[in-house]
């Protein structure tokens, strides 16, 4: 007869087995999520229950295999299955629709871009050697690969970064202290979503969007000539790794310093070379010593950055060290509520 203790030990062991197996099939869960987006399932499902056969007809998929995909996702909390086997949206699956205000479908596709399925299996090499795998796989640096060899992934990347920026622009703009600031430069600021929000909140401030030529050419309409803030905004093309030829009271670097530290140092020093003494430099990023729950995401994104550019996310103390190496004076760190993973404002001043 099996003792109660043995039964308890077996139950505990099986619970651990289940947790480990759930982690081991994580790539399959990600693939299922990406497959649903690619097939257009979020657009084919409604708030009212829909037969799998109807969803299949709308997505040009085989009903049997589509049902298996929906079942796998429903078990992960994406979509809701009714008692009669039909499916409808829930709060989580609705975020994957084209008309979702957050644009998260683009982030889902970016995190599962084709190159990632070649890079993740070589994570052990990246960890052992401490370097990016994308150059090893494709023979060129990550951004050259995107622009030259993977234009569709590049488009998805741009849309994903826009989605990430849109998720937090309002909260970040509220948290930034612009008292006494007359000019703001958003360095590597993408299409200018954050800068647009700042200019809308602060009519006395002039802004400069500084990024690669192709990026600023696609700036949000409000920042362009003739746009709502066009008379208060300059669009300056350039590469921050070479120089930052912009004068401002406040320089913003949002989600930029995740590449190798030598690149981050170059950017910070390039800003210092142009900025006047006392100018503020504000890094906006998640940190690696945050709450454990959000670290489940950021710690994996940290490895994602290792694979593509050899980069990393930073702790608060690592940011302090980075600023010190760049000759800047760290003045404080502040969490931005209402963001996930929680963004932090890490601020320094140009000495002198």
Descriptive tags:
352 residues; alpha/beta; Arc Repressor Mutant, subunit A; Rossmann fold; 2 domains; two-stranded antiparallel ribbon
Would you mind describing this structure in some detail?
By secondary structure, the chain is α/β, with parallel strands linked by helices. It folds into 2 domains: 4-100, Winged helix-like DNA-binding domain superfamily/Winged helix DNA-binding domain (Arc Repressor Mutant, subunit A); 117-349, Vaccinia Virus protein VP39 (Rossmann fold, 3-Layer(aba) Sandwich). It has helices at residues 4-24, 26-39, 41-44, 52-59, 63-75, 91-94, 104-111, 114-119, 123-129, 134-138, 142-149, 151-175, 193-201, 213-216, 261-274, 292-309, 316-325, and strands at residues 80-81, 87-88, 183-187, 206-211, 233-237, 250-254, 280-286, 329-336, 343-349. Strands 5-4-3-6-7-9-8 form a 7-stranded mixed β-sheet, with helices on both faces. The protein has a two-stranded antiparallel ribbon with strand order 1-2. α2 (26-39) crosses α5. The longest helix is centred in the middle third of the chain and has 25 residues, at 151-175. The mean pLDDT is 93.
